[in-house]
Amino acid sequence: MKLKHFLYFLAIVATVGSLSSCSQKGGGATEKDSIDKNKLIAHRGLWSQGYPQNSKEGIEAAVVTDLGGYECDIRQTADGFIILNHDMEVGDKDIDKSSLEELRAEAPEILPLLSDILEIQSRHPEKIMYAEIKSGNVEDILAVFKEKGIDKNVIFKSFDKEICLQLIGQTAMPVYLLSGDNNLDFQELKKEGFSGVSLMFKEGETNKALIDNIHSTGLNCAFWTVNDPDVAKQLDDWGADHVVSDLTFLEVASD
Fold this sequence. Notes:
Blueprint: H1 3-25, E1 40-42, H2 56-63, E2 69-76, E3 82-84, E4 89-90, E5 93-94, H3 100-106, H4 114-123, E6 128-133, H5 138-148, E7 154-158, H6 161-170, E8 175-179, H7 186-191, E9 196-200, H8 208-216, E10 220-224, H9 229-238, E11 242-245
Parallel strand pairs: 1-2, 1-11, 2-6, 6-7, 7-8, 8-9, 9-10, 10-11
Antiparallel strand pairs: 2-3, 4-5
């Protein structure tokens, strides 16, 4: 789907939400009538709108919308290049055991360099970059950010707590622990230097009390990967800081 179509959908979402509120309440629309799109983070860029996942094109498309930002996955090749890719393999080759040249022979249309993505970020510093570290040397990864002068509006995150702790020890930028467990020791995470958590939404477990508890410790909280518009709106109402989403529901929000 072309970017202009996506922007059109965003306009429709806002318009329909406003009309729906007026028809149901007989009054003007308020801030609570629809999700704050500035809290929505495009999961791996706008791949749901027809762009490759973790691609320059998908991220460039995300930063020119009124979304809050984008998420991407970072890995390091055997010859030291820092690239974007979700999976640990490209074709039949392991990223951490293969050169960039070997990997691009498998998939020439993807695998952008982190440095290229940071060029985009430098042109749109108001956008939030959720940088998930999948693998690689933390010092090498941070060196790319330093080289490009990017030190604001970046949130690092990882399922690997050791990677997170290395990040905390080497950068002042916020670091979130990614987890599918809602029963973490949030006070301990705050003591360890974490700025927030990125949790999986779980029906019956995720609620306002959980979010309030997280915030009470001084941590921020985001949720992934939320593709139900009602759940995204509920998390917004409960005070979640960001909602990471494939944004597939924006295509049908005007129905």
